[in-house]
Write a structure and sequence with these properties.
The protein is mainly α. It has helices at about 1-15, 20-35, 40-65, 75-90, 95-120, 125-145, 155-160, 175-200, 210-235, 240-255, 260-270, 270-275, 280-305, 320-330, 340-360, 365-390, and strands at about 165, 235-240. The longest helix has 27 residues, at about 175-200.
Length: about 400
Amino acid sequence: MNRFTSWLTHVLSDLGKNGIFIALLLVVVFFAIITDGILLRPQNISNLIVQNGYILVLAIGMVMVIIAGHIDLSVGSVAAFVGAVSGVFAVQMQMPWWIAIILSLAIGALVGVWQGFWIAYVGIPAFIVTLAGMLIFRGLALVVLGNANIGSFPAEYRALGNGFLNDVFGDFPIDPLTLGIGVIAVVGLVVQQVRTRLGRQKYGQETEPFPWFVAKLVLIVAGIGFFVYSLAAYKGIPVTLIVLAVLVLVYGIVMNRSVFGRHIYAIGGNRHAAELSGIKTRKVDFFLFVNMGFLAALAGLIFTARLNLAGPKAGDGFELEAISAAFIGGAAVQGGVGTIGGAIIGGLIIGVLNNGMSIIGLGIEWQQAVKGLVLLLAVAFDVYNKRRSGGR
């Protein structure tokens, strides 16, 4: 009986720690039911990634900014500005597509340098600087566009937002390359999980009950298998997904295994204590916003490539969805808490909400209200957890 109680306690604790992932599953199941399975069709699964890729890219940078105790309201305007500039480069000046992309990303980083300077070295709060940036770069986007649209872009450029990696081994109903990559990913995950468990047992550390370990692994493998099969059955792996996978891998390592990542968490947890411990907080803040400018530029390129159009309305509301993704994914309002994975899941929840509500024909006004309510409940849950654990 004591053993069963211990197992149950561990399972409940594990479920609590993975609440955001469970929330994503519940949202998916709910909309899969009310849309009669349309949500889980292969084409729709692929579209979820392609249509929300730019938000997920922004969420990665935004959660880092929020962890450090800042906010960035300018990312939508920066994305629109860089998209417009890339249109000038690639369409009007007819530069090679890869040069246009590199120059556009560099301009995004320079925007981050501009904002990072005012925040880190002049000492103006990020809220004010990025609010000014939202107005400045929206205006510059309109100046660059001349209040008109720019298109159409080269095919290689468009692949960033609409391209797929498929038919490498020939034209098959189910893409073998996608399936092969999925199998490698599943095997790698299983091996990593088993090695981690064996390592903990070797050093006498507590491990989760074996039945729960197996059940959780089976569910994760089944989820990955379904996702991979859906992609393989449609058009293969979206280029946007490849970009996202690289970003999640790189930034996951930065936040979890690098000195810079530890400094970000330390600054968000207690800036004064971080300064006393020798962390160069101004330098960290500066590079955080350089990075945010770069990712905002990348999001702008992805969005522009998907639409094959740089227009004056691009970027509207991007900052709100990126901030919502970070907070829904578990980032703390006060800073010091958050993960890249959580922000991605938060972004996926927003994407599923958008997609599911569109499928059932819910009006845009109700969609906005529902997303606002979800954000409010996510932050309220964070505040409740902190109070329950003795935080203020």
